[in-house]
Design goal:
The structure holds two protein chains of two kinds.
Chain A lengths: L2 H4 L4 H23 L8 H19 L1 H7 L2 H21 L25 H33 L1
Chain B lengths: L1 H19 L3 H23 L21 H32 L13
Helix pairs in contact in B: 1-2, 2-3
The chains are: A mainly alpha, B mainly alpha.
């Protein structure tokens, strides 16, 4: 057993996390994509997706998680979410005003309906998910930095 | 009415925890209890007897909905509470790194 496998919690926690990680991500994606027809939306789904990665970090330790999603890519996704949301808002100027719903609305209560609202939800999901994970990552890195200084 | 009073009890508990405790982590938990008691109060104001969720749906009539405005307010308050809690925890980690303790009575030096 090398040093990296010893990091993190016991094998029970690791196995359960490995099994549930994909399911949590899938549930988060479901909440985001159905944001315009049922309760939930970008913020709630983003928090669930961020919690999946936080779960991974708690169970496996810092290094394994940083290999999956690094500090740079977290900050990249957060910025992309903000720019995407702003871009969707600017696209309304094609029709005449800011935040105008330019896409066809479709039938109510269908998955593909409500124009730009699902795209707004996806942008918010990127921003919130990456943001909350970045907060947790910053706290973890702060602590490791303090340990190294001592 | 008794529910509002219980909400006030929770609020007082949060103030007690924030003012009286010496451990920084316990103070942060007290601030969080304060926030959540206020959020609970807003949700209780919005509640209506036999009301339903304020969401438009195919099968149900738009009748007797609970008030959605406090819900929107509470959602914003939860987000801001998350941000302030993260900031407080970061400051607490920095204080622990500098002084080696969470006890506020032992943090006496004000040097930069």
């Amino acid at each position: 057993m090398n040093k990296q496998e010893q990091q993190g919690m016991t094998i029970i926690v690791k196995t359960v996390t490995r099994l549930t990680f994909g399911l949590i991500l899938l549930y988060g994606a479901y909440i985001v994509l159905h944001g315009h027809v049922s309760p939930g939306g970008g913020f709630a789904g983003g928090v669930i997706i961020a919690l999946a990665f936080i779960n991974l970090m708690l169970a496996f330790g810092r290094d394994v998680t940083l290999k999956k999603i690094s500090k740079g890519s977290t900050s990249f996704f957060e910025s992309v979410g903000a720019i995407l949301f702003f871009g969707i808002a600017l696209l309304g100027f094609i029709g005449g005003c800011f935040f105008l719903n330019i896409l066809p609305k479709g039938a109510p209560f269908r998955l593909f309906s409500a124009g730009i609202i699902p795209f707004c939800n996806i942008a918010i999901m990127l921003k919130v998910g990456a943001g909350i994970f970045a907060i947790f990552l910053a706290l973890v890195l702060l602590e490791t930095e303090a340990k190294e200084r001592k | 009415m008794i529910l509002y009073l219980l909400c006030l009890v929770l609020f007082s508990l949060g103030i007690y925890c924030t003012v009286r405790k010496r451990n920084i982590i316990k103070i942060i938990v007290g601030i969080m209890i304060l926030e959540y008691s206020v959020n609970l109060f807003f949700a209780l104001i919005a509640y209506k007897e036999n009301g339903r969720a304020p969401i438009y749906s195919e099968t149900q009539d738009i009748l007797n909905m609970v008030d959605p405005l406090p819900h929107a307010l509470v959602l914003t308050a939860i987000v801001i509470g998350l941000a302030t809690t993260a900031l407080l925890v970061a400051i607490a980690i920095k204080i622990y790194e500098k002084y080696g303790t969470f006890d506020i009575t032992k943090i006496r030096e004000l040097r930069g």
